[in-house]
Amino acid sequence: MASILSSSPSPFRLAAGTALLLGAAAFLAGCSQTTAEAPHAQVAEVGVFKVAPQALQLSTELPGRTAAYQVAEVRPQVGGLILKRLFAEGADVKAGSALYQIDAASYQASYNAAKAAVAKASANLLTSGPKAARYKELLSIEGVSRQEYDDAVAAHAQAQADLESAKAALDAANINLKYTSVAAPISGRIGRSNVTPGALVTASQAAALTTVQQLDPIYVDLTQSSDELLRLKREMEKGGLKQSGQARVTLLLADGSKYAESGKLQFSGVSVDPGTGNVTLRALFPNPKHDLLPGMFVRAVLENGVDEQAIAVPQQGVTRNAKGEATALVLNKDGKVEQRILSTGGTQGDKWLIKSGLAAGDLLIVEGLQKVKPGASANAAKPVSTVAATSATSTAAAPAAAGAH
Q1: Do 345 and 264 share a structural domain?
Q2: Whose CA is closest to 162, among 113, 130, 122, 112?
Q3: Which of 4, 112, 317, 323 is packed most tightly, with the most Cβ within 10 A?
Q4: Helix crossing, 105-140 with 146-179: angle to 10°?
Q5: 47 and 370 Cβ atoms separated by less than 8 Å
Q6: E strands along 123-255, which residues?
């Protein structure tokens, strides 16, 4: 009995062995599950833009200010007291309409005197003419001497000259009398009056009485760098750009809205400002509602020409490296990410114009840039045809569609 008891395993030993076996089984099961659940390495999905040359209307946005088409400073041409102001400040006036009335009493008197002088000269001519004719007849029969005849002819010529002089004085007096009514030299909008009734003015004084400005049409003076002007000229000479008729210009107002009317470029300056290196351009815009006023700041979008093989890509696909160079990530045929160094030619709407670094058919990564780096593998999130942008023809063209997230 004792031997049997001694050969039987202890309950404590059985429990320890069981626990050890259960622990080993659990460990092996956990390792097997971990191995089975280990995820496979995933390839990042990115949105791409398929690069394709397209005919693109290139334009440049330039700062500018509006200027009146015509400006006339009104000054008196005769002196005197201002009796009346005959216009409302800020109103539109017609050319020839009366603006001020100057006291005309002295000018009326001068006109009357000149008119009387004409009458007197005409009366003298009535007697000198017949007298010279009679003396000519008497001279043929020696009824008067040659000297008397010559004096009569001279007196008649003098009377004729006196009449012409009197008529000229009458014309001058009449002109001065008319100048007492100060008229608008051009049609346009009139500003504030610098004088009031009772003010004494003088002929051709330095200070203007008021100013009239023609606002329809209106000029917009723009500034463009001479370097950019030369670059565009050379590209047109090489055939890279095709000129599209007379340059059309559109305006963006200070609040960001687009002006309803389009204008035309009138001329380019013939000299470069040595201080800024800019050339002045002038465009002419219709202004029927007088929405544009002289001195307003605007931004003008000037059409430069058409690039038949332009490469324009979304701006989100172009970044800068530490050296300031433009770079882009491209998905190659093997599904690998490549980095390209680009040469850009400015912006067109929401796109970069690319001079070099990208070619037709390249897949530019525009979405998911943070997921990949050069040399990594990647897949396009959607077929390329669904994310390629449509052709744009102006700065107002819709943005290119990007790949899906």
Answers
A1: no
A2: 122
A3: 317
A4: 160
A5: no
A6: 181-183, 188-190, 200-201, 210-225, 248-252
Strand order of the sheet with strand 200-201?
A: 181-183, 98-102, 80-85, 200-201
Phi first, then psi: give them for residue 202, nearest 5 degrees: -125, 160
3-class state of residue 396 by DSSP: coil
Residue 288: which residues within 8 A CB-CB, separation 6 or more?
A: 216, 261
319 and 379 co-located in one domain: yes
Q: CA 24 to CA 247: how far, in whole Å?
A: 86
Per-residue model confidence (pLDDT) at position 18: 47
Distance CA 335, CA 380 (A): 9
Q: What is the mean pLDDT of the chain?
A: 80
**Does residue 399 form part of some domain?**
no
Whether 214 and 187 have beta carbons less than 8 Å apart is answered as yes
Q: What's the total number of domains in the chain? A: 4
Residues 6+ apart with CB under 8 A from 180: 78, 80, 101, 102, 103, 104, 107
Q: Note whether 174 and 268 are same-domain residues.
A: no
Among 279, 244, 239, smallest CA distance to 264 is for: 244
Asked if residue 31 belongs to a domain, the reply is: no
If asked whether residues 297 and 359 sit together in one domain, one would say no
Whole-angstrom distance, CA of residue 206 vs CA of residue 340: 66
Instruction: Supply 280's token pair.
Output: 């002045």
Q: What is the pLDDT, as a whole number, of residue 349?
A: 72
Token code pair at residue 194: 């610098």
Domain of 146, in residue numbers: 105-179
pLDDT at 92 over 50: yes
How much is the CA Rg of the chain, to the nearest whole Å? Answer: 47
Q: Quick one: 189 and 135 in the same domain?
A: no
* Cβ contacts of 236 within 8 Å, gap of 6 or more: 242, 243, 305
- Between 329 and 139, the more confident residue is 329
Residue 392 lies in a domain: no
The per-residue pLDDT for 265 is 81
What's the token pair of residue 97? 């309409």
- As a whole number of angstroms, the distance between CA 258 and CA 269 comes to 26
> What are the Cα distances from residue 400, in Å, to 81, 270, 312, 319, 361?
70, 39, 10, 17, 16
**289 shares its domain with 225:** yes
Contact in structure between 186 and 211 (CB atoms under 8 Å):
no
Ranges 15-24, 247-256, 282-291: which has the least confidence: 15-24
Q: Does residue 171 share a domain with residue 141?
A: yes
Tokens of 230: 């030369």
Query: In the predicted model, is pLDDT for residue 337 greater than 70?
Result: yes
